[in-house]
């Protein structure tokens, strides 16, 4: 009896067939038919572009140093970048742990007020009052965080990206708190006001979602067992996996040195479209690492968070879960996210340096994404490799 071919063999046979090529050459997203004939020309995982090296201070890291065969970044180099930008790591820790503390205090205060109001009724009324008090306190804090998110992006995230970019390019940074002032000046020189950076970031995220939709469409037509049943899980994972990519696009806008941030972002998005396989594969690995470690932090913090809730009035039962989740989020935002960005920056430099822009991808993004069209409308110059005005 002949042995049955494995799924991997079936997929390779399908991709080599003429019928597969005719299907994969065009992918339809909604009412838009997207040609994808140049997928084979995209960089392989081991390809290096341009200089192809990461520089930390005066030390030059070779592309293959400490790089796994499954991903294209070096964790040691990423940790080195974080150590050299320790002022920003500490700033992030202060901001995000402060946000967590604010949530805890506001929620605990709300629960306490609800416990006091509940004294005018029976036990059921007190439990409801505490629940409402906690939710109101949590909601008020969330509303405040929503309004200051622009400035967190401007000062904390973009500033940290700016100093990482300068280290990658071998520039010398000020020591201590001088890094923060230097990074703020760089970000202001590239983007101007916080509102401009925030508007640009929102458009970038919209375009990235469109590219992710294209990837989802390709996956849905491949003959992978149970892919249709698991498409919801795949879609959720893809949304999470590209969560760091918008920061890489901002990094490119900073690194280009152009005064036209919109043009630099347009260029970076085209480069991302050309290199989506490399970037998405590495982003997927980083998603597994960061969320896996954040999950471990959550499990470790459940016991002390429950103990904290126990001393609160009425022992709010859901508080332990919420507080442990908040602490895990703060660890992820303060330490794991910059680590992931440092890793993905290495991949971006290695993959896109020296890579020519493909006008077809520019047209493709314009066809599939209204956010890309809005971004192009704000570009002040011609479409050049450096995103500079012509």
Give a written overview of the molecule.
- The protein has 390 residues and is mainly alpha-helical.
- The chain has one domain.
- It has 14 helices and four strands.
- Strand 3 and strand 4 form a beta hairpin.
- It starts with 6 loop residues before the first helix and ends in a 13-residue tail after the last helix.
- The C terminus is likely disordered.
- This is DUF4282 domain-containing protein.
- It comes from Pseudogemmobacter lacusdianii.
- Keywords: Membrane, Transmembrane, Transmembrane helix.
Sum up the structure in keywords.
390 residues; mainly alpha; two-stranded antiparallel ribbon; two-stranded antiparallel sheet; 14 helices; 4% strand
Termini separation comes to 67 Å
Total DSSP helices: 14
Residue stretches low in confidence (pLDDT < 50, at least 5 long) are: 7-12, 14-64, 386-390
Strand element count: 4
Shape: globular
Biggest sheet strand order reads 1-2
Output the helix-strand order.
HHEEEEHHHHHHHHHHHH
Q: In percent terms, what proportion of residues is strand?
A: under 5%
**Residue share in helix:** 55-70%
Protein name: DUF4282 domain-containing protein
Organism: Pseudogemmobacter lacusdianii
Transmembrane segments: 89-117, 129-148, 283-302, 308-329
Keywords: Membrane, Transmembrane, Transmembrane helix
